[in-house]
Each structure stands twice: as C-alpha cells, then as structure tokens.
Amino acid sequence: MIKHVIRGLNVVEFGEGNQFSIIFVHAFPLCNRMWDKQVEALQDKYRVVVYDLRSFGYSELGDGHFTIDSHVSDLISIVDSLKLEKPVVCGLSMGGYITLRALELYQSKFKGAILCDTKAESDNNPTKLARAEQMKMIKNGQRDQFTENFIKAAITETNFAEKTELVEFLKKIISWQKNEAITGALLTLAARTDTTDSLEKLDIKTLIVAGREDKLTPPEFSKIIYGKTKNSDLKLIPNAAHLPNMENPDDFNAAILDFLKSYEKKHN
Predict the structure, then answer these.
(1) Domains along the chain?
(2) Which tens digit of pLDDT belongs to each residue from 115-136?
(3) How far is the CA of 226 from the CAs of 37, 114, 215, 221, 229, in angstroms?
(4) Which of 48, 55, 67, 237 is the Cys-Cys partner for 14 at CB 3.0 to 4.6 Å?
C-alpha cells in the first residue's frame, strides 16, 4: 500500500507493481473505505487506486463547494499524476455521476468503465427538494437521524436487520465526514448536468451494475444506460440495494473480476 497526496486529495494505491489498473470513485456520503472488499479481492493481480473525494475522508475540505466537473478534474489529476495508462474507472452513485461526466469529457483517458447504481439523468424537482431537506437536517444538528435514514434507504431491509456489522461500519464511515462535506455534496448532486446524450458516444467496454433491490437509484436507470450504450453488459446483484459492493461483495466482486479478466485477455 502506498499513500499519496495529490492536489490535497487522499489517494491510496494497492498492487502498485501490477500493470492493469482500476480506479474507484466512492459514493455519497462515504469515503474510499467503502471499497475495502474490492481492494482485498483485486490487489494481488491489479493496480488498485482508491481515493477520498475532495472534502471527504482525509482529503482537503476547502470551502466544501464543488461541482461534478471539479470532481472530474480531481479524478483526471490522479490518473495523470500516477501515470495510470488508461485505467478502468469504477464509480458508484455519486461516484457514478462523476464517472459519467469524466467519460463525456475524457473518454480517451480510460480503457473501460464500471457504472454502479447510478443514472445519467439529472435530479428532478422532488429529488432536489429531498436534498434540501437533508441539508436542513444536517444544519439543524440531526446528523444521527440523517445517518439512520440514509442507511435504511441504501441497503435492503434484510441486510439492515441482519448485517449489524455492515450497518455499524456505514455509521462509522458517515460519522467521519464533516458537515460541510455532506451539505456541499448535496448541492453538487442537485446541480449536476444530465449526461444521457453522451451515452451513445461511449465507445469503451462498460459494465453496468446495480443492486436488484435498489430504491435510491432503481435498476430501471441502469437498464436505460445499458440500452443507450453500444458496448456494455448489465449485471443485477441479488440480496443488495444501493451499495451492492458492501452488501453482497462476493457477487459484486465476481462481476468485476469477470469483466476485468475478459477485458484484459482481449487487450493483451
């Protein structure tokens, strides 16, 4: 494991001697630790890079106000600074929005993409209002309620009831994040652009993954991405909702490994 600080971003690299690389972009309101199970599964064979989005985890807070495009600039700066030669990029939820915009602007920087529990559409009015309510909760000191609500919405009812270790880990990760990071990211999410028109221009191999029971970003949105991209596969993960990489890491990792192995074999 090698730790880097790139433009104030906390970046962690595993399997640095391996040639084929993959970079993970985390979800709101978490940090790079959400990818622990993926790092564990991939680091022996692949160069794996995880990082904290600006203002999250150990990355610099700044003023907490960033756009999806500024997050894309951060992603590209990591790719360039570490000299990652056309990595696969994997983003989940907010990380998926960043990935979609990065592909719209810098497709040639990547050899493949994994889009998880995300959508190309921008927020509609009800979703924007819901984000405003979440901001109000944070500013009114209701962090615990915000956290409880998020976790209940993000994972399946069964996993919430039975996977107490996962629930506690999610609570811990969210507790690490600063109020300004959470409220700033809510504004970022509400203000993001629609990337639907760029999907037909996507010309790299893409894996689209979604938890079968995702209520925050239902699988229908993943099916739309699948229908509009010409070189993609769709994988729905059972026993999982919005965070399949954490709820059902075995099936999630198997899907990613199959994608990487087939892609690696094709391009070697």
Answers:
(1) 2-267 (3.40.50.1820)
(2) 999 999 999 999 999 999 999 9
(3) 26, 12, 18, 9, 5
(4) 48
